[in-house]
Predict the 3D structure of the following.
Amino acid sequence: MKLSLELKCKSPEVWLETVLADFPSFIRDHANCERKASAMAMSLVAKYPDREKIMKPLIDTAIEELEHFRDVVAWMEKLGVPMGQDMQPDSYVNQLIALVRKGRDEGFIDRLCLGSIIECRGAERFRMVEEALTEPEIKRFYKILWASEAKHGNIFVEMALEYFPSEVVYARLEELLEAESEIVKNLPLKAALH
């Protein structure tokens, strides 16, 4: 059973150049993404309390994402980067959420598939950042993060497979991966995770 996803397009090198040119903005956005990832995992727990097999993995994921948020905030303090007052809307995530179908089961599988895709994109981008950084301590931090995000991507697929036949899960993942690829290709360049 395949749990890891293959993204349909790679993030462009110019995205990485944009991030490295304004790392304070990137790390600020990164902190907000970790906070939102924790909240998203808990929102699934709240929305689907009858789906008992998702409870433990989602709670564990939410805690881990919250720990990442704490760790990124600590890095921001070390680097002298303030949190700032405003959070910019995440066009990437908002466009993906717009793809979620109506209906309890359809919405459930879509949210799990999108959770996996978002985590896999995060893993890819954190890996790019890690490979480009030169300071050993922060480089190690981003290496740990991309490995964790990749693991989270697998967990969301595992949860979907608990409730839906594999052919249904993989067919929907394929559709959403195609859509995600188009979204990524059209994202404006900014020093942000997405």
